[in-house]
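Quick question, first post here. What does this chain look like in 3D?
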Amino acid sequence: MDGKRRYGIEGYIDRAYDEVDTGTTQEVSGRIDGVAEGVRTPFLERKYSNPISHTVRVPKRKSISPFAVVVALFVAAILIVLYINNIITVNHLMREISVLESKHQRLVNDQEILRARIHKLSSFDRVQRIAQSNRGLTFPKEAPQVLLVDPERLYEAKRLLNRMEGTITKE
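> Answer (accepted):
Ran it through. Tokens below.
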């Protein structure tokens, strides 16, 4: 061997070569192939006292303990219960959403009805009819007159008004 440790099949073959102390290279190679394949070889038969009873054994699987099975079933049962609870909760929420959506739609419809009623009640023809019949209001028969105000007279009026307010507040 060249000093490096090898893993896998190559490492297994290298270790088998190290254990073999007799035979030619060709015999050793055949013996190692037989060991790797799980077949009895002359090498193995010479190594053990009873050549028929010894073969390369594959390790048995560990048996699963009853406690592990019970724990696994318990965990599975809990997961199933949680899943079913999730489905029930989602269904309940979907029903609640459906009820709330129908309430929302009903409120939107009521709102549209109220808007239509507001437009109908605030129409110009209706307001004019009520103003004339109940309040006695009418449109003026002559056109409104435009008043022109002199800015100086407006300033004087404001100053006079401010002075009058000042005398009233002093009393």
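Residues 21-36 have pLDDT under 50 and may be disordered.
The two ends are 123 Å apart (CA to CA).
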